[in-house]
Amino acid sequence: MRLGVLFSGGKDSTLALHLAAQKEEVACLITVVSKNKESFMFHTPNIDVTALQAQALGLPLVAVQTEGKKEEELADLEIAIAEAKNKYRIEGAVTGAVESVYQASRVQRICNKLDLWLFNPLWKTDQKALLETLVAEKFQVVVSGVFAYPLDEKWLGKQIDTQIIAGLVELQGKYGISPSGEGGEIETTVLDAPRFNQRVEVTDSAVEWRGTSGVYVIKQARLVPK
Amino acid sequence: MILVVDMNWKKDSLAYSEFVLPILALAEPIEVCTVRHYLELEPSELGNYSHIILSGTTLKDFEFLKHLENFNWIKTCEKPILGICAGMQTIIQAYGETLTACPQIGMTGITTLKQNPLFSGVFQAYALHTYTIEAKNQTFDAIAESSRCIQAIKHKQKHIYGVLFHPEVRNQSILQRFLQL
Hints:
The structure holds two protein chains of two kinds.
Chain A: E1 2-6, H1 11-23, E2 25-34, H2 50-57, E3 61-66, H3 72-88, E4 92-94, H4 101-113, E5 117-119, H5 127-136, E6 140-146, H6 162-175, E7 186-192, E8 198-209, E9 214-225
Parallel strand pairs in A: 1-2, 1-4, 2-3, 4-5
Antiparallel strand pairs in A: 6-7, 6-9, 8-9
Chain B: E1 2-6, H1 16-19, H2 21-27, E2 33-37, E3 51-54, H3 73-76, E4 81-84, H4 86-94, E5 99-112, E6 122-133, E7 140-145, E8 150-155, E9 160-163, H5 173-178
Parallel strand pairs in B: 1-2, 1-3, 3-4, 4-9
Antiparallel strand pairs in B: 5-6, 5-7, 7-8, 8-9
C-alpha cells in the first residue's frame, strides 16, 4: 500500500514513518507549515527543516502553508493530503499521533472524505518506551521547544538520551509532565534516523526564551554524510 | 489465558500496533494473552482460553466481512466474548443479524440502556466505525446508545458483548471488567 506520512520533522512522525516503512511503501511526506505558533494540530518549531529531512530520506515532500486558524488549518491539511493523493497516488496516510483523540479524529475525518486509509502506528504507546525506542534505534533527536514549567532553557537543543529520558520521567512523577510531550510540553526535531541517508548538521542556531517557554531555532543547517 | 483476535486485513499489519497492542497493554497485566489473526485461528484451540476479545480495525478495513466463515465458532462458543468495533460487527454477522450504516469518528456521548457488568450511566467514548446493528434483531439486547445509533450489545443468554466504541482508547475499565467475568 502506498502511504503518505504526515511529517513534522519531530520524533513522533519520524518514528511513525520508520514503522510504516517496515510494513508498507512510503511514497511521500506531507507537511503543513503553520504560521500559528499555538497551533493545536501542527508542530511548529523548525518546520522548515522538513525539506532537508525529506532530502535525507529520499522522499518527495508535499508542503502546504496555513495561517493556522483553528478550522482553516484543517482545510489546508486536507488540501495537502489531497495533493499527495493526486500526485503520488497514495492509498493511505500515517500520523505520529500517540494519545491525542483531537488530532487523530480530525485527520481520520479528512482521510475518510478522501477515501484513504489512516494508520497511527504509535497509538497508545507507553511514552517512556517510545523515547527509549528512539535511543535504541539511534535516532538523533533534539529538544526544539519547551512549553511547561519547570522545563527551562537548559533543555533546549539537548539531544534525547537515557539521561534526558530519566530527567523527563522524574518530572512526570513530580509535575505530571508527559515525558514524550503529549500535552504539548515539548517539541523535538530529528537530525538523524535509521532511514536517513545523510544526517542534518546544524550550523547556526539560537535559543529564544520568553519567560515560561522557549524554542531552539535552527537558523541554518545542511546535510552531511553519516 | 486470554485470546485476542487480530481482526486487521492481514497478519502483522501496520494497524496491529494501533488496534491490538493497546488491548494487550491492558489485558496482559491481568492474565497471559495469546494473539491469533482471524485467518489462522483454529476453533479447536478455543478451549485453551478463558476470555476472547475481537479487536477493531482501521475505518476502511472491511476484509473481515469477506471471511465470515472463519467466525462460525462464535455461535457455539461458551466463553465470554467481547467484540470491539469490527469485532462487534463480526459477532452481529456471525449470528446472521443485519448491519446498518452509522458512521461516527471522534468522541461521542454514550448512554447505558440496560444494566450490565461492563459499564453504567452516561459517559464519553471514542468512536471510529461505519456500521452498527439493526435495531430490530432476535439475538442481542442493545445495552448502550449514542444520539445516532446502538453503541453496545449483549447476547440475550450468553456473555457475548459488542462495543462499537473503543474502550482500549477511553474507558479502559470496560476491558478490565470484561476480563473479570
